[in-house]
Amino acid sequence: MTKLLKKALVLGGGGFIGSHLVKKLKYEGYWVRAVDLKFPEYWQTQADDFIQGDLKDKDICNQALNDQFDEIYQLAADMGGAGFIFTGENDADIMHNSCMINLNILEASRNQKTKNIFYSGSACMYPEHNQIDPENPNCSEASAYPANPDSEYGWEKLFSERLYLAYQRNYNFNSHIARYHNIFGPYGTWDGGREKAPAAICRKVALCSDNDQIEIWGDGEQTRSFLYIDECLDGTTKLIRSNLSGPFNIGSEEMITINGLVNIVADIAGKKITKSHIDGPLGVRGRNSDNNLIYEKLKWKPSQPLIKGLELTYEWIDSQVKASK
Asked: How confident is the model at residue 113 (pLDDT cuts 50, 70, 90)?
């Protein structure tokens, strides 16, 4: 008797996290459909079926969900790094586009027999007042309310969390919600304005010569934690295959300043770098993942230090920089 393949749907499957997730699911033996506005930028999709379309369009959502799936991963959003989120210039598009995507996906999913869906939220939804001290940020899941995100992107993520939980209560969804903390790795955006800090710093270091200067927004003492892509996917698949809804943090507890991040990347590159601190969009002063809850419930935590992921990421971005010259 032929064993039926499990089926997965990856919405946002042309993006950084989504394209890596497609690869992981294919390795695990799933039949995978991916949907996105664009194909992956830096490598070929491994999806069995790729629908190129806009999930703000109800017809595209209905087309994407015209089959029964064991797992649905909702990663699609209008987003980027600090240079995109915190200028204020993209607020309306960020809120409208991402909300429309989630509303359409949930409505299209209501006819599914299996409504096992993962939603990728963000640590940006945590209150700004709990992230003022760069040495002691509070990002435990219970700290989310009273709500006070530092950006419209964070407000949209908070609303969408509640939306998925409401559909779970009213329409028998199995919703699983994660709050991602700065996911990075190879094959992600590294220039153009939407890149995040690890990719931007890797690019700047790769472009400069020994003893050169690179620009850093702010004083560089703002703190963050960064999670390598493989670790993120491990936590994501563990969550959707559990009976838990969350929200749960999926991030690293290895907090570091932006100056410290620059120093690590410079060491990896074998270059001496000086920093020029300039004005720029910064976000909160301090942020770090609190993994107590997800470890208690799922026994998940990152398995490797930050430097391991940075070594792989720098190697790839350095190759992209050299190829672009």
From this structure: confident
At residue 166, the 3 state secondary structure works out as: helix
Residue holding tokens 């409504």? 115
CATH for the 7-184+228-250 domain, from 2.70.70.10, 3.40.50.720, 3.40.630.30, 3.90.190.20: 3.40.50.720
Number of helical (H) and strand (E) elements in the chain, helices listed first = 10, 13
How would you label 252-291 residue by residue, b for 16+ Cβ within 10 Å and e otherwise? Answer: bbbbbbbbebbbbbbebbebebebeeeeebebbbbbbbbb
Residue type, position 1, single letter: M
Judge contact between 252 and 185, C-beta under 8 A: no
Predicted TM-score (pTM) of the model is: 0.94
Determine the residue type at 137: P
Task: Round to whole Å and give the CA distance between 152 and 91.
Answer: 6
Residue keyed to tokens 């472009």: 207
DSSP state of 124: G
pLDDT tens string 181-224: 999 999 999 998 888 899 999 999 999 988 889 999 989 999 99
Any idea which residues carry the catalytic annotation? 153
CATH architecture for the domain at 197-224+255-287+306-324: Alpha-Beta Complex (3.90)
